[in-house]
Amino acid sequence: MRTLSELPYKQKREVVQWWRIPDIICDLNFRPPAWHPRGKWHSLVIWLIGLSLGSATVGVFVRMVLGWFVGSAVVAIPFSLAGSFAGLCLVTLPVVCVTADRLATHFVFWMTAHFRIDRATMLGWRADWRERLVRFPHRPPRRPEPTLQVLQTHQQVLRLRDDYLAGFARFTAALVIPAVVVAGAGLLDVIETVGPTIVAGQLAALVCLAVTTVPRDAAPVFAQALEHFFGSGHNQPTTPWMFPSPCGRSRARQLWLVLSACLLSLTLLPIACTFTVTAHPAAGLDSSSGIGEARRSAWVDDWLVPAVHAVADGRFQHVGDLLLLLLAAGLLPPALLLLGLYVITGRVLVAHDRALERRGAYEQHHQWTPFDGYTERLRHSRDRRERDCLMIGFISFNR
Predict the structure, then answer these.
(1) What is the pTM for the complete model shown?
(2) Average pLDDT in the 96-124 region?
(3) How far is residue 295's CA from residue 90's CA, in Å, rounded to a whole number?
(4) Per the count of CB atoms within 10 A, which of 102, 151, 289, 384 is most buried?
């Protein structure tokens, strides 16, 4: 007969009587080895590309179906250049900013729960983070008698942390300024090149910001944060002494990434691909009668029939446009999303990593083992029941 520690994880959950476990949040904040980032962020990128392709396909299909059967000029408004850019700024931009803030919040709390961080330091950095939308408090390092090098590093961390809200302003400017420049330069007359020019400017601006404003050592920290935000934990109840994400269970966190990727795909694609099948206008839209028949005739006569004849003659321009559309749908939204998240959160994540998470971080007790760190939190817990608990040891099964 096997003991509870030897059972698989799912069977353990069936054995535990969850109604007997108190509904409290403990200060232990145990970080299970299985929840640590494992460098598998590449699968998340592939998943985002597939999601963007799927949402873009659905968007194009919905537009074609509505334009075919409804035939109203109102259908084309959300898919036009102006309508898509308005959706990008008014809907997609706030959602991406909220996703970035939740990503940073989740991983900052994870870093503060490192077993070499004592309870007072963990709660202090979390209290500082809750003031991020107003102003981060400036406090000295919480370790006694810091060296000159520690004080210099701490000042760098405070400067990076204070710049958190500026990341949102940079991301907003990178999306809006290229469109303003294109409009001011008088390029709106050539509709086929307006959208691609705007998107190219947005991507170039984000790349420049990522290179010039974010420290180089922020890239691996951001990759770990993205992987951990998306894949750590599970959707079932957890015991109170496990690390509690302030952003909810994994499914709730994944929903924000899904929503951001889908909205970016639906609003960015009509802007970037005005030269493909999505941009062919329906003839007769300026008339108030016969709009439905005119739009149906436009899709058949202006694109479908020429495409069939061109393929039959060995000319694949329309097929090339469609392939370019799919390529843009799969790559542009994930690139814009990841660059935007990196520009917003890169500086603040690397600041907390330097202070709390990486090897030799100045807020750590460098000689502590996991047993030392977690027992210290038990002894100084705010909850009497947790203070009465004992840390006997660690189980190495199912690591």
Answers:
(1) 0.81
(2) 95
(3) 29
(4) 102
